[in-house]
Design goal:
With 119 residues, this protein is an all-beta fold. It has no helices and 11 strands. Strands 2, 4, 5, 6, 9, 10 and 11 form a 7-stranded mixed β-sheet that branches. A 4-stranded antiparallel β-sheet has the order 1-3-8-7, with no helix packed on it. The chain is globular, with a radius of gyration of 14 Å. The N and C termini lie far apart (40 Å). The mean pLDDT is 94.
Length: 119
């Protein structure tokens, strides 16, 4: 069983920065992709960013230019650097691992870390 543990959330003022971390219980060197999602109260979970095993990154329009996703394979960790935070970025942030096994891709989720942007 693969486990993902997020950390780094907290309370930050608008315009501030946070860096989220997600530690995976296995090597992420050959995974299919990893991503970050978020869910605000009363809203559906939405995609934020993805990084593939080849290092290709993609972002939702709402965070493009402000957030950066990256990995440290030696630490089995994926990061989300969040800059210029806005109140609408307030949400529970989840890490997701897409693990390819044979011809199938299996998703694994972390428990989430809360980010609150408020003055």
């Amino acid at each position: 069983q693969v486990q993902l543990v997020e950390s780094g959330g907290g309370l930050v003022q608008p315009g501030g920065s946070l860096r989220l971390s997600c530690v995976v219980s296995r090597s992420i060197f050959s995974i299919y992709a990893m991503g970050w999602y978020r869910q605000a109260p009363g809203k559906q979970r939405e995609w934020v960013a993805t990084i593939t095993s080849g290092g290709t990154t993609s972002y939702s329009d709402s965070v493009k230019g402000r957030f950066t996703i990256s990995t440290d394979n030696a630490k089995n960790t994926v990061y989300l650097q969040m800059n210029s935070l806005k109140p609408e970025d307030t949400a529970n942030y989840f890490c997701k691992l897409d693990l390819k096994q044979g011809v199938s891709i299996y998703p694994y989720w972390g428990q989430g870390t809360q980010v609150t942007v408020s003055s």
